[in-house]
Design a protein that fits this description.
98 residues, 4-stranded antiparallel β-sheet, globular
Length: 98
């Protein structure tokens, strides 16, 4: 496990906009963090959004990040710009508090 000094600093944000229906949100980011993977799992608990890179095993509920750098997601996330939490995020998982 990396120490705090060795941990890669993850910075950036994700923009949340209304999707094609009221229950959908479109997530967009130009962060380089998304460059290493094509599929991601997304979990939220009402206060925190967690986006994890998929490795060789791609779960059925994985989201594909398109070449236009966005994906749709069924959610009630607040619309706007959400910043990555650099303390809790890692090379494999983004943590975003809202």
């Amino acid at each position: 496990m990396k120490t705090k000094e060795e941990k890669a600093i993850v910075v950036g944000s994700i923009n949340v906009t209304a999707g094609r229906a009221q229950r959908y949100r479109q997530l967009y980011s130009n962060s380089k963090w998304f460059d290493d993977s094509e599929y991601f799992t997304v979990k939220e608990d009402g206060q925190c959004l967690k986006i994890r890179k998929c490795g060789l095993h791609i779960p059925r509920n994985a989201q594909k990040f398109t070449s236009s750098r966005h994906f749709m997601y069924v959610s009630e996330l607040p619309i706007g710009r959400l910043e990555f939490d650099p303390e809790d995020s890692s090379e494999d998982e983004l943590v975003i508090y809202y």
